[in-house]
Design a protein that fits this description.
The chain has helices at 9-50, 54-61, 78-103, 110-135, 152-162, 168-192, 199-217, 223-240, 245-254, 265-289, 298-303, 306-333, 344-353, 358-368, 372-399; strands spanning 64-67, 74-77. A hairpin with a 6-residue loop joins strand 1 and strand 2. The protein is globular and about 55 Å long. The chain is an all-alpha fold. It has a single domain (30-61, 73-193, 243-281, 297-399), classed as Up-down Bundle (Na+/H+ antiporter like fold), CATH 1.20.1530.10. The longest helix has 42 residues, at 9-50.
């Protein structure tokens, strides 16, 4: 009788750990490199907008393009095609990341998710409160969610520059906080930055998403069919008054996290799309939106604007005190523990890096304000707050050692 070889529990545990950690390592690596591409694109946008050819920057992104024919044709300027069209892929990948974390990552267990969730909530509530306190009674108050966002690519990029000076636990905690922050930001965009809702179109978007669920349950595996239905969901969401990028998040969350017929669908999609969004879509978004002409008194106006200082205060002080304060409160209440090799002092550095709110902050600013002068003041605040937060976070993490290093 042939005997079944014994199962090595240690090997099985290592294999399970690799299944979780390998996609995470790949994601962190691509986010760090994507952060560099994002910086380069932002610099190009600012230089272009302030060069002798600055008028061409505005003219290029205001050039209109039509996609489709007849009654289903859409005409938007190039900036809107980037913000409403290409950014759907970015938010789809965000949805994939959230789904992976919920099923196989740090968010799958309440005990592990409680502390970073509390930190993320603190990092949203306090910046928004500071913003509203500074802008109370002004038109700028509608952008209260601008300092509530954290840019994962930029934050992870700063950690990559620090190299081995920070532990993997620091990176994991920051990433988990940032992903939960993304979940909150997406909900804010869907609820507070949607207008002129059309119930028939919203019903159409819901039907398209329901069809995706139905295709999954009937075992349909053709990605092209899902892409067509997803395009329909995006179009209906775009016309419904809810921002079109929410369709991308919803489709990402509906993607199966467990293998189907031996095929890891979520990992495959993330592996193929994440490099494209990190190195093409997000830098293109920065190129289209980060350009601010600092001439004509823009900097002077921003320096005197309550909106600018509200964003800087929210990103620098709100994120720092909100994330760190909520983390320490959670530890005091026994709602979780810090990852291995993460000290309490390093929490301050992580919290400061949470104040890098570049991509999603710019995105919300475009939704919150209609006039270009107001948008420019918001952009100056986002630039300044993100740079200060990044510098403060890097300095803290450079000066503070992890428990293992000590």
């Amino acid at each position: 009788m042939k005997r079944t070889p014994p199962i090595d529990v240690a090997d099985a545990a290592k294999t399970k750990a690799r299944e979780v950690l390998d996609p995470l390592k790949e994601f962190l690596h691509e986010e760090a490199a994507g952060g560099i591409a994002l910086v380069v694109a932002s610099i190009v946008a600012v230089v272009w907008a302030n060069s002798p050819a600055g008028d061409s920057y505005v003219g290029f992104w205001e050039h209109e393009a039509t996609i489709g024919v007849g009654s289903v044709a859409l005409t938007e300027d190039l900036r809107h095609w980037v913000n409403d069209g290409l950014m759907v892929l970015f938010f789809f990948v965000v949805g994939l990341e959230i789904k992976r974390e919920l099923v196989t990552g740090e968010l799958r267990e309440r005990s592990a998710a409680a502390l970073p969730a509390m930190a993320a909530v603190g990092g949203v509530v306090l910046p928004a409160a500071i913003f509203l306190a500074v802008t109370a009674g002004s038109e700028g108050a509608s952008g209260w969610a601008i300092p509530a966002a954290t840019d994962i690519a930029f934050a992870v990029g700063v950690l990559a520059l620090l190299g081995d000076r920070v532990s993997s636990g620091v990176k994991l905690f920051l990433l988990t906080v940032a992903i939960i922050d993304d979940i909150i930001a997406i909900a804010i965009i869907a609820i507070f930055y949607s207008d002129n809702l059309s119930l028939p179109w919203l019903a159409g978007a819901s039907a398209a998403l329901a069809l995706v669920v139905g295709l999954r349950r009937t075992g349909v595996r053709a990605i092209a069919l899902y892409a067509v239905v997803g395009l329909g969901a995006w179009l209906a969401m775009h016309e419904s008054g809810v921002h079109a990028t929410i369709a991308g998040v919803a489709l990402g969350l509906l993607t199966p996290a467990r293998p189907i017929a031996g095929r890891a669908v979520l990992e495959t999609l993330e592996h193929r799309l994440h490099p494209f969004t990190a190195f093409a879509v997000v830098p293109l978004f920065a190129l289209a939106n980060a350009g601010v002409d600092f001439g004509g008194g823009v900097l002077a106006d921003a320096a005197e604007s309550r909106l600018t200082w509200a964003i800087v205060g929210g990103l620098v002080l709100g994120k720092l005190l909100g994330i760190a304060g909520a983390t320490f409160l959670g530890l005091r209440l026994g709602w979780g523990s810090l990852p291995d090799a993460v000290s309490r002092s390093q929490v301050w550095g992580i919290a400061a890096l949470g104040g890098i709110g570049f991509t999603v902050s710019l995105f919300i600013a475009q939704l919150a304000y209609d006039t270009q002068d107001t948008v420019d003041s918001a952009k100056v605040g986002i630039f300044a707050g993100s740079l200060i937060s990044g510098a403060v976070g890097a300095l803290i993490l450079l000066r503070v050692r992890s428990p293992r290093q000590r």
